């Protein structure tokens, strides 16, 4: 569709992880943020590290495909090197949120 | 369209979400194009961002492109940023030894998916 999509609603992390696995991203796992602060995407993720408020989660498919979820400010940052993964992640996010 | 006190109003979707008391979510994609460092060396005289600008102008001639600095440009709401050292973040480079790869990060919000994914796949095709 050519319509722009504006997402809203409460985000359910468990559902998101389940949908990712249904879509074939079976390696998707919730990471401990402190342990995960290593690797090539670190420099990209540090941009808004000041927002860390205990409601931030990191879902990792692998070292170069990650999803940074900030439940406190309702922001989801997707970092991907693999565009097939990105499209699956996008579809999974849209499955878990409503859009206008 | 929003029905408010018996009036029908046209409002931006973002504003409608707020007026309805719903939680607006921001989804941002940061797509990384991993490219051989040799491309950067070959572009040295002209600059990689100029090359990217020329590709975009040719393919999307009706859209406004803003050059932010030597390494970053904006095409509408899509950001293209060259990250020369993306793949050496945690490894110090030995004297005179160049890294194998560099990165271009293309960022956009969900509402700009159409343009963002197009810019990504076009640059991937043209720069390989």
UniProtKB/TrEMBL annotation, chain B:
Compartments, record wording: Cytoplasm; Nucleus
Primary localization class, coarse: cytoplasm
GO molecular function, one term: RNA endonuclease activity
Keywords: Cytoplasm, Hydrolase, Metal-binding, Nucleus, Zinc
GO biological process: snRNA processing
Position of the signal peptide: none
Tree of life domain: Eukaryota
Protein transport among keywords: no
Gene Ontology cellular component list: cytoplasm; nucleus
Annotated family: Belongs to the metallo-beta-lactamase superfamily. RNA-metabolizing metallo-beta-lactamase-like family. INTS11 subfamily.
Protein name, UniProt field: Integrator complex subunit 11
Organism name: Brachionus plicatilis (Marine rotifer)
Part of the intact protein present: 489 to 616 of 616
């Amino acid at each position: 569709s050519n319509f722009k999509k504006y997402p809203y609603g409460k985000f359910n992390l468990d559902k998101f992880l389940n949908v990712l696995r249904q879509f074939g991203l079976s390696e998707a796992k919730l990471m401990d943020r402190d342990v995960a602060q290593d690797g090539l995407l670190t420099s990209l993720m540090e941009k808004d590290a000041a927002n860390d408020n205990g409601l931030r989660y990191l879902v990792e498919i692998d070292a170069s495909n990650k999803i940074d979820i900030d439940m406190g400010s309702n922001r989801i940052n997707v970092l991907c090197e693999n565009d097939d993964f990105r499209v699956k992640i996008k579809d999974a996010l849209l499955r878990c949120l409503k859009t206008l | 369209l929003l029905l408010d006190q018996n009036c029908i109003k046209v409002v931006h979707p973002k504003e409608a979400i707020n007026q309805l008391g719903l939680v607006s979510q921001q989804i941002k994609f940061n797509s990384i194009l991993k490219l051989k460092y040799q491309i950067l060396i070959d572009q040295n005289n002209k600059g990689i961002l100029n090359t990217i600008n020329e590709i975009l102008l040719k393919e999307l001639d009706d859209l406004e492109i803003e050059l932010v600095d030597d390494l970053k440009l904006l095409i509408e709401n899509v950001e293209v940023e060259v990250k020369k050292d993306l793949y050496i973040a945690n490894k110090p480079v030995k004297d005179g030894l160049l890294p194998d790869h560099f990165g271009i990060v293309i960022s956009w919000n969900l509402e700009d998916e159409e343009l963002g994914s197009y810019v990504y796949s076009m640059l991937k095709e043209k720069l390989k």
